[in-house]
Amino acid sequence: MTITTILPAPATPRPGSRAARLSQPRAVDALKDLAIDHGVCIRPVALRRTDLATGKTELVDLPCGATLEAKCPPCAKRARRLRQVQIREGWHRSDEPILVRRRPHLGNAT
Length: 110
Ligand SMILES: [Zn+2]
Prior knowledge:
Blueprint: H1 18-23, H2 27-38, E1 45-50, E2 57-62, H3 73-88
Antiparallel strand pairs: 1-2
């Protein structure tokens, strides 16, 4: 009969090993958390802007404008606050629109 002893896993993984690398947060996740903490969009949309007078072109990052918290929490929070202000100021309709459906256009075929 043989007795095998199972050694417990070391508390700290060997430096430079895969386990040590995976225990560190990814840089992209750390940057996203930092942007969320400061209320900055985490998925900016890059637009190219050309100055017509000088002809210089530059890239401008615009906020994504997402309304879902799962996509971009800072933009969703900003959009929610904007909707609250618009509702408070009465920007909403008080009645439901009545949809009038027209007959589909069938072209010149008779
Ligand atoms: Zn965003």
